[in-house]
């Protein structure tokens, strides 16, 4: 199993109100320059929120929502500090209730 960390917010906030696309493009460019494998993904309506243990979190986030999911906890902490009004957390996958944490990926 892999531990995934996430930042969760409304799609409107992440994709329209914040200059967030630029942040992800810059991070992607940096990873390519450093020859580092991409370890984060932008996901609309993340499937992991459908797991029974995630219903409380899903209820706290305006819908439709979007998430940045990463295996890099420090990146998620940095995003939380930069964006402020987001929900953060973590989950293990694949698991009995979370099989496809990266479904509905958004291309940058």
From TrEMBL:
InterPro entries: Ycf54, Ycf54-like_sf. Belongs to the ycf54 family. This is DUF2488 domain-containing protein.
